[in-house]
Amino acid sequence: MASYKLLLLPGDGIGPEVAEGLKTVLGALKETGLASFETETDLVGGSALDAHGVPLADATLQRAKDADAILLGAVGGPKWAGVPYENRPEAGLLRLRKDLDLFANLRPAICYPALAEASALKRDLVEGLDIMIVRELTGGVYFGEPKEITSLPDGGKRAVDTQVYTSAEIERITHVAFDLAAKRSGRVASAEKHNVMKTGVLWKEVVTRVHAEHYAHLELEHVLADNCAMQLVRRPKQFDVLVMDNLFGDVLSDIAAMLTGSLGMLPSASLGAVDDKGLRRALYEPVHGSAPDIAGQDKANPIAMIGSLAMCLRYSFGLGEAADALDGAITDALAGGARTADIATEGTTPIGTKAMAEVIAQAL
Amino acid sequence: MASYKLLLLPGDGIGPEVAEGLKTVLGALKETGLASFETETDLVGGSALDAHGVPLADATLQRAKDADAILLGAVGGPKWAGVPYENRPEAGLLRLRKDLDLFANLRPAICYPALAEASALKRDLVEGLDIMIVRELTGGVYFGEPKEITSLPDGGKRAVDTQVYTSAEIERITHVAFDLAAKRSGRVASAEKHNVMKTGVLWKEVVTRVHAEHYAHLELEHVLADNCAMQLVRRPKQFDVLVMDNLFGDVLSDIAAMLTGSLGMLPSASLGAVDDKGLRRALYEPVHGSAPDIAGQDKANPIAMIGSLAMCLRYSFGLGEAADALDGAITDALAGGARTADIATEGTTPIGTKAMAEVIAQAL
Ligand SMILES: CC(C)[C@H](C(=O)O)[C@@H](O)C(=O)O
Ligand SMILES: CC(C)[C@H](C(=O)O)[C@@H](O)C(=O)O
């Protein structure tokens, strides 16, 4: 049995707790003989800032480059509201994404049958929902230059962010979306604002071309990002794979996640390109944030973090069997009635982060 | 009785039909003696492009400047999908906004009790919903330069849009939001991405300062735009007035509108600054778009357009009584069971655009 090198970056807020839950499950996975890991743990975000004065130390970045995969909890919190922009906790995460070239962010939005009632939407609109949002993660307004605040002669200030995309960046994320769609329903919807943005014009043009040249047998639909947000709320099941830029992906994937009623359960993968040796860098993290309001109280749901490991097994190591076993253990735990507070329904008694992780480890 | 000069720009798709409905109501308003108007009609968007080769003729812009208020239907449609970027129908609307300096876009999202069932959200989450989204409309990524597509040495292309905000631009929209909040619940939520964007940093800083200096007795909350989108879906009634930049306002106001189940009923106002003579330029338009799929079939709901006139009476002319009468006529028409197809519920027979406008005119 191969042993993989995992870098675990718990981060801030509820990050350390859900990461502990993950360790419980990693232990159980090893016992079953399904997969084995060497795990290193390091700091990112506010906790790194507190320890090293930067939200991602160079040594941590190097470890991330050397690891077979990275699992991250969450970053940020009100504690660091006053720190300079360059050192804010989020900068650590953004540096990881950019320096490891993790350009493809996969965010599944799945509505678990047991939790359909927890959605704000009517049950029939979300029951069975299974969308995959493919978000470009290393371009756009997140990283474009200039990005600055300058002083004006009148005493005021002027702030600028720059939204930039090259056709090459759009091409590679389009391939990711269609390759996924080929294994799913064969349908891709691409969202942009070509009626207002030049990056939207180029986005639409490139997606159209890549589709025609490589995936003409699959279905492509173009939708304006504002309308897409509306449609996600109105009739989410009309979509299968959605592809969009970094900023629209940030907002629309959060909407999609919230629709499912299972925000605490949704994992995500951030993938790099495949290199000469057939390897690809990858970081896996829950869709939920650091939730400072419940941090340190053993209340957080560890399923998104554990589900991120299942994605890791599947996408980074090709361990489909182990991934299935892990997903199955999560389903079994839920079917057995285990519920953390965020997904507790009437008649169930919520359990804590640790207990949930143990139930899942047992189910393995 | 003063007579006001209205410029009516029906535009494309269902625009001309809902504008006809508006004329029916303008006639009835005159008869009641509540208000009187001189109405001119002109072209904008695709229809202007077809007639004049540009989506907004200079003569039309001049008429818009001379009018006391502008009422616009909708622009755009698949017919003009292939026209050059500079001439697309939307450019006509954007030029109106920019050249008339209509920086404050007010988008109420109201859930009409009779229509709560039409929402995708569970009834108790939206019943009684009454949010006001204040969107900055003449800045940000919509107008910042550079905005271009260039060729790269490798044969590829590079597209750029520029998100720019000055503190002065943020200040004036913040005042609009708080002045509205003072007449409502006194609560403002400001949405941005200060954790990723420098414009978000400046936005948060300026809103915080304007609040402290002028509105310390009112409540201010900062919320990240992605979280705001989530919260709108999860628990929309937590918000009263929301203020945000042009692009976030585009996406989030569409979500808010969709939540209400009454998209075909929501009006909007785009207001300029008050000039030396105490006048302010203003354009009123439905939140819904040109809906090409149902255009020309007498199916569109004219209520958003007629409600836009009610906003015009109130904000541009201070005719509160006439505005109340018009809003009351809309409510009466609905209470009487009048329903266009988009808001038809079981047991009601939908009526057409014309018939709905007539029912409202009668109710006046
Ligand atoms: C934490 C923040 C920088 C991040 C983002 O904006 O990308 C988060 O919202 C996300 O979606 O992963
Ligand atoms: C038609 C389009 C240019 C416009 C916008 O993006 O502002 C529309 O979506 C709106 O919200 O008024």
Automatic annotation (TrEMBL), chains A, B:
Compartment list: Cytoplasm
EC number: 1.1.1.85
Domain Isopropylmalate dehydrogenase-like: from-to ranges: 5-360
Cofactor: binding details: Binds 1 Mg(2+) or Mn(2+) ion per subunit.
Catalytic activity of the protein: (2R,3S)-3-isopropylmalate + NAD(+) = 4-methyl-2-oxopentanoate + CO2 + NADH
Record carries keyword Metal-binding: yes
Binding site for substrate: 97, 107, 135, 226
SUPFAM superfamilies, per the entry: Isocitrate/Isopropylmalate dehydrogenase-like (SSF53659)
Pathway: Amino-acid biosynthesis; L-leucine biosynthesis; L-leucine from 3-methyl-2-oxobutanoate: step 3/4
First-tier enzyme category under EC: oxidoreductase
Site (Important for catalysis): 142, 193
Family of the protein in this entry: Belongs to the isocitrate and isopropylmalate dehydrogenases family. LeuB type 1 subfamily.
Protein name: 3-isopropylmalate dehydrogenase
Organism: Methylobacterium aerolatum
Gene: leuB
